[in-house]
Amino acid sequence: MTQIPVHERTLDLIGNTPLVRLEGPSKEAGCDIYGKCEFANPGASVKDRAALYIIRDAEARGELKEGGCVVEGTAGNTGIGIALVANALGYKTIIVMPDNQSSEKMATLRALGAELVTVPPTKYADPNHFQHVSRRMAEETEGAIWAGQFDNTANRKAHIEGTAKEIWEQTEGRIDGFTCAAGTGGTIAGVGMGLKEFDENVVIALTDPHGAALYNYYANGELKGEGSSVAEGIGQGRITGNLEGAPIDTQFRISDEEGLGWVARLLREEGLCLGLSSGINVAGAVELGKQLVAEGRENPRVVTILCDTGFRYLSTLYNADWLRSKNLPVFDWLKDSD
To answer: What is the mean pLDDT of residues 281-303?
Structure first.
């Protein structure tokens, strides 16, 4: 009988998430596509990993002390992870978030006891960008540290030491490619670096949404965005501290429509309720799988990240009126509920 692990601390529940073969994507790609189920973390997203490492790193360096506060600017999921970890360790949390993110994320942060500050979405160069506002708040708050997830490389270290190692062990070292989108860049850089330590031949691919600049950067050496995306938490216009030195071998650009197509299929065909970033990641994994098959790799295996639960987007991705307002296709079953 398989022994189910017993953990001594709740924070040990972060990481060691399941890996699952995705039947529809595998059939489409002509090879095995696997999803790392990061929605199984306590905060229901991949960002729990970065939150834990960032806070533990600040403690180790003596910057975060008893009774302290963690301040961060985030699209939501990192804030949720930070709030949970901070609660478990006795710290306060202040989260600054763009006001165009899902209401479910905002409600969750408030429910977790975090102080939530919302600001209008703006470009990174604007001093009122949510990252800059959060940094200033940290500087002005006694006993506070700024998590700084975009440039704090404790973020990618979480994936070098955790996610990459888990994927390698779960696939028994039989992995040909890995891909995901970049927000902070911590996941793609960290998993890429970690897997390359095991096998240099693992292909690391960026899957970029429209509107982000990294696709053009890795394809043509120029940070240039084209189009737009409604995906939350992914898409980047600069080389963050976590992205510096990231071993990106190839890149794909995926539209919201294609990502939503996979969100719909994974829910209806495989019972997985996911967010748009996961759908975009799966679309990229299918493209990478096809590429590896075309290159002659025998029975290649590709892994991607299933970032968070779709229950965090009931007012957006799973709302017919919202989808129509963004000129996006409405899922068939939502049309029936109008």
So the answer is: 97
**pLDDT digit string (tens) for 17-67?**
999 999 999 999 999 999 999 999 999 999 999 999 999 999 999 999 999
Question: 44 Cβ partners below 8 Å, 6+ apart?
Answer: 80, 308, 309, 311, 312
Could you give the CA distance from residue 48 to residue 53 in angstroms, rounded to a whole number? Answer: 9
pLDDT(158) > 70: yes
pLDDT at 210: 95
CA distances from 222 to 122, 187, 200, 280 (A): 21, 22, 26, 22
CA of 321: how far to CAs of 137, 167, 189, in Å?
Answer: 36, 38, 36
End-to-end CA distance of the chain: 48
Cβ atoms 79, 93 nearer than 8 A:
yes
Catalytic residues: 47
Where on the phi/psi map is residue 289: left (φ > 0), alpha (ψ -120 to 50), or beta? alpha
Tokens of 94: 């202040």
| C-beta separation of 304 from 180 below 8 A | yes
d(CA 38, CA 88): 20
- Alpha-carbon distance of 1 to 159, in angstroms, equals 30
From 32, 64, 318, select the one nearest 176 (Cα to Cα).
Answer: 32
Task: Tell me, rounded to whole angstroms, the distance of Cα 204 from its chain centroid.
Answer: 16
**CB contact set of 239 (below 8 Å; sequence gap of 6+):** 185, 217, 223
Look at residue 308 and give its three-state secondary structure. Answer: strand
In this structure, what token pair is assigned to residue 7? 């953990």
Q: Lay out the sheet containing 250-254: strands in order across.
A: 19-21, 32-37, 301-306, 177-180, 203-209, 250-254
